Amino acid sequence: MKNFNLFLIFSFLLLFAACKSDPSPTPECGDSNIKIIAKALYGGDPLVLYQAVDYPQGFKVKFSRADFMIKGLKLSGSSGELAYKDSVFILQFTDTEVEKAKLGNAISFDQCDGNFNELKLGVGLNKDLNAKKPSDFPSSHPLANAFYYWDAWKSYIFMKIEGKYDQDGDGNFEGSFVYHIGTDDLYKLITMPISLNAQTGKSNSLELDIDLKDILAAGGEFIDIPKNPSSHNPGDIAIAHKIYDNLSTAITVK
Q1: 121 in Cβ contact with 190 (< 8 Å)
Q2: What's the whole-model pTM score?
């Protein structure tokens, strides 16, 4: 879909994508292949860029960017595994209309049956992969994109959340915030229970929700945006860790 920049190398797909642990042939799925539909939310509602929303600190904010780097994506259960084991996805949520934001963006497995009870993914890159640079990859690889790398960190940028805030309520949105997260310490593996009995002829999908409100204000403890408007610098450790700790509750599946 046009609002979902999903960069994958075809050789990675041939080697790693959607491989069951048993040698049974892939069935003809038609429209029934298993899909993970990723959606960005704010407070449970579809995230619409440049639309004002209430922040728990008592003023309104507008988001202008919501990007997430995902390494690996695996379904597992009694039927074995479906996995994009070594592929990297860069999820860019760019919708500016609510109806488009509601649709989400699908990552499809070339499989349409099986029982699965767990979804696992990594936000960011593991240490070995994060030690590389964009120049280490061919131009078609997602990690060749220098937009997601910062030399000062010697790290890829795993997450970019940007926007503006209107602290005085005059409608001008005079303040900016930029939360860029990276470094080896902030690679996070997330495992979530699921219940998916996929069958040919059914709509076999799971919704993967990323809620930006929970990332910035989980459990009633919000990040003070005017005092801490950035995690763009390597020294902004406390804010970076707070944001990454919140991912465990901000990313959910249903």
Answers
A1: yes
A2: 0.85
User: CA of 4: how far to CAs of 64, 106, 155, 221, 222, in Å?
Assistant: 15, 8, 24, 30, 28
Strands 205-211 and 35-42: parallel
Give 35's contacts (C-beta < 8 A, 6+ positions apart). Answer: 106, 107, 108, 109, 204, 205, 206
Q: What are 207's two structure tokens?
A: 């919704």
What would the pLDDT profile of 183-196 be if each residue is shown by its tens digit?
888 899 999 999 99
* Pair of tokens at residue 9: 């190398």
Asked if residues 116 and 31 have their Cβ atoms less than 8 Å apart, the reply is no
Q: How far apart are CA 245 and CA 28, in angstroms?
A: 41
**What's the rounded Cα separation, in Å, for the pair 127 and 129?**
6
Q: How far apart are CA 118 and CA 6, in angstroms?
A: 23
Q: Which amino acid is at 8?
A: L
Structure confidence by residue, pLDDT tens digits, 193-238: 999 999 998 989 999 999 999 999 987 889 999 999 988 665 667 8
